[in-house]
Amino acid sequence: MSSIVTPSESLKDRVFNLVPPFMIALVLLFWACAPKAVTGNPWTLIITSSAITVIVLLLEFVHERHSGWRMNAQEFFTDLFYVVLSATVIAWLSKTLAEDPLLAAKTALGISTTWMEQVPWLVQVMMVIVILEFGQYWMHRLMHNSTPFWLTHAPHHHITQLNAAKGAVGNPIELFLISLSVLALFDFDMTALFAGLNTLNVIATFAHANVKSNPPIWYSYVFTTIRHHSLHHSTDYENTRCNYGNSLILLDRIFGTYREGEGVLVGQDDRRRLSIWEQTIFPFQPLIDRIKARRGKPTGGAARGPSGQDDAGTGGTAAA
Questions:
Q1: Measuring CA to CA, which residue among 240, 70, 228 is closest to residue 163?
Q2: Residue 64 DSSP code
Q3: Which region, left, alpha or beta, applies to residue 243 given φ > 0 means left and ψ of -120 to 50 means alpha?
Q4: Exposed site from 39, 140, 141, 276, fewest CB < 10 Å?
């Protein structure tokens, strides 16, 4: 479950085991104490989020977990593409198609959460984390148990190594769906909202990173670690049907989907890495294959759906 010190652990190991909780503490301290001129700047959240990813990425070079996950130029530029996509196009779509309509409905229905002003700041941060992660847990679980949703999520499981920015890699439809939340219904203090988002960012980044860090038991009981998430990404079908929490592994413990273990080999099918284009068209592959079949052209073949059964023409093996 976590980082019980063993005689074989070096001082470096012990220090790195404490890095994730230490970074969370720094994030909370920053948003709680930084001047309003800084925290009120709309660019601050973008800068802090980017800094978290860059720092963890650099830590991969200092204390890597698996040599087979070592960063290379191809992986770096692919990850960078998806990070920029998520911060621009996906963020705009989420705001325009989800957040703004939700705010309009809130106003039209006269929903008010002014009582949030009386809630302690740290409790607000915790609420942001739980509300957002609760929705993501069930969306993630749905994606593993419903073929239409799985087709949007499968590209994320075709990654063949884990790195700091891999949480942003996936089909654009999935990236949009996983970004949805009901946070707009609550009048959170803006710094508490950003602190919660950055905290989730720290946890999820380490949960995908090639960093040799096994946080303390109390941390790994509540928060998702690379051990939990690497098992979810493993090549074994049954082992991927667990540990759905992107950041709160506690939800898996509560809802019975937690499984202990760690994966080293990650990916799907024959562990063939998908290109950005292949990830983009993956949900439409069944339709493309049907059209090709009618024209007598070779198709992508059959693949297992989230139930483990063969689904003709899905173009990949479902990991659930």
A1: 70
A2: B
A3: left
A4: 276
